[in-house]
Amino acid sequence: MRAVRRTVRLWLAPGRLAEEGDTPDYRFSLANERTFLAWLRTALALIGGGFAVDQFLPDLRWGPRVGLALALLLAGALSALRSVSHFVRCERAMRRGEDLPLSRFPALLSLVIAVVALAMVVVVLAGWQS
Amino acid sequence: MNGRDPGLQPERTRLAWRRTTLAATVAVVLALKSALTDGAGPAALLGCALCLAAWLGFLGVAHRRITALASRTGRPVPLAPRLAASAAGWTVALALCGSAVLR
Q1: What is the value of ipTM here, to two decimals?
Q2: A130 touches chain B (CB under 8 A)
Q3: How many whole angstroms separate alpha carbon A107 and alpha carbon B95?
Q4: Do the domain assignments include residue B4?
Q5: B79 lies in a domain?
Q6: What are the residue boundaries of the DUF202 domain, all occurrences included (chain B) (predicted)?
Q7: pLDDT tens digits, one per residue of B58-69
């Protein structure tokens, strides 16, 4: 919890980040920024997918349709938040000359996406039967 | 720094921001379609307005960063964490408004 608070403080006070270590080669920072943007696009795609589930499966009952849509929207929001925290942590690691942070998040996210996709297949097949 | 960066890093980063605004536009169009499926009541219109506000906020952040990267004088400035946080914040706002317009 304290780590979370420290990270959020780093987001909002860029001066703190600049105080630490040495400025890395700007190309590394730009590469880090592009990785951040790729994660942000992943988040936006998940959010768009949530809306797509809501619209393009109108024959489903309310429960599974809104449940799947909300799961995708939530995954998108979490990815967006995590993308900033990872960006800031990578930036700090580069300034301090440490190894880049490792993360379980990509594996977790792909598991969640696999589960949602399987649930969608099951729900669509079951919806056709009725 | 003299001349162009042989790796074209600022250009690539600028294009990555462009792609991201396109992704945001697609998500917002889907959100508006979702909000307006049951006609345009006051709640649906409010949801649309909030989604559009989130979209404009995101475009504003992207525009600031794209203009900063497009200036050819000196070394490119790294992305400020605050700007990154506000880009992600608008994305989360879009998801929140979106979850309110689902029905």
Answers
A1: 0.90
A2: no
A3: 22
A4: no
A5: yes
A6: 5-68
A7: 999 999 999 998
Q: What is the pLDDT of residues A28-74, one digit of tens each?
A: 899 999 999 999 999 999 999 999 988 888 777 888 888 889 999 99
Residue B24 CA to residue B58 CA, distance in Å, equals 8
Is there a contact between B19 and A44 if contact means CB atoms under 8 Å apart? Answer: no
Total domains, chain B: 1
Among residues A16, A4, A32, the alpha carbon closest in space to that of A100 is found at A32
Sequence length of chain B is 103
**A74 belongs to a structural domain:** yes
Contact A51 B24 (CB under 8 A): no
Burial class (CB in 10 A: 0-12, 13-18, 19+), B98: buried
Residue of B nearest to A55 (CA): B34
Token pair 């709640």 in the structure block, residue: B43
Minimal Cβ distance to A81: which of B12, B34, B92: B92
Say whether residue B21 is in contact with chain A using an 8 A CB cutoff.
no
